[in-house]
Amino acid sequence: MDLKQLVRTIPDYPKPGILFRDVTTLFGHAEGFRECIARLAAPYRDAGVEAVVGIEARGFILGGAVADRLGTGFVPIRKRGKLPAKAIGQDYELEYGVDVIEMHEDALRPGERVLLVDDLIATGGTAMAAVKLIARLGGNLLGAAFVIDLPDLGGARKLEAEGIPCHTLMAFEGD
Ligand code: AMP
Q1: How far is the centre of ligand 1, averaged over its atoms, from the C-alpha of 86 (Å)?
Q2: Distance between CA 88 and CA 170 in Å, rounded?
Q3: Which of 35, 83, 147, 175 is 20 to 30 A off residue 23, Cα-Cα?
Q4: Distance between CA 29 and CA 157 in Å, rounded?
């Protein structure tokens, strides 16, 4: 099944020059979504994952389903100010300025075996901030899984260089 065909590309969103890879069309396709979750989870079936960590917002949809497949719990990483209990935050750079993502400080046990999930890796800024949060909580990050890689932006290579194996289902050239 060609999952790439189910991803819709929107030119000039959210601003001129960006090709936005829209996964809502993949999520809305029953067989495509099931296959996408199966492929994301496949390498980790026997990896002893104990928690799936997903990044707001599309990482919640994917991460929740992957956690169900792997029989683990799910831990959210949210944008600043959204988590109700005590949280730790990590800055990351956007094209213009800085943003913060957060995790509950008691979301992981030290040494807990973690899989990170998001829809797309571009520069890797968001994923690296998530990696730092997981490390600060003492999590043992086994790998990171993304539906889409934008290899020209180098994010997956950046994670691999930090010793975090990346699993991606498809790549789009360019940015
Ligand atoms: P980055 O931090 O540069 O790796 O960007 C990754 C985050 O931004 C992901 O959560 C994506 O959802 C979003 N993103 C970045 N570039 C695109 C794109 N071309 N199309 C869709 N989403 C994108």
Answers
A1: 27
A2: 32
A3: 83
A4: 30
Task: Extract the tokens encoding 134.
Answer: 């997981």
- The residue nearest atom 19 of ligand 1, judged by CA position, is 20
β-strand 8-11 against 51-55: which pairing, if any?
unpaired
Query: Which amino acid, 132?
Result: K
What domains sit in the chain, N to C, each tagged with a CATH number?
Answer: 48-171 (3.40.50.2020)
Model confidence over 34-93: pLDDT tens digits? 999 999 999 999 999 999 999 999 999 999 999 999 999 999 999 999 999 999 999 999
Q: In the chain, helix, strand, coil percent, each to 5?
A: 35, 35, 35
Tens-place pLDDT, residues 146-159: 999 999 999 999 99
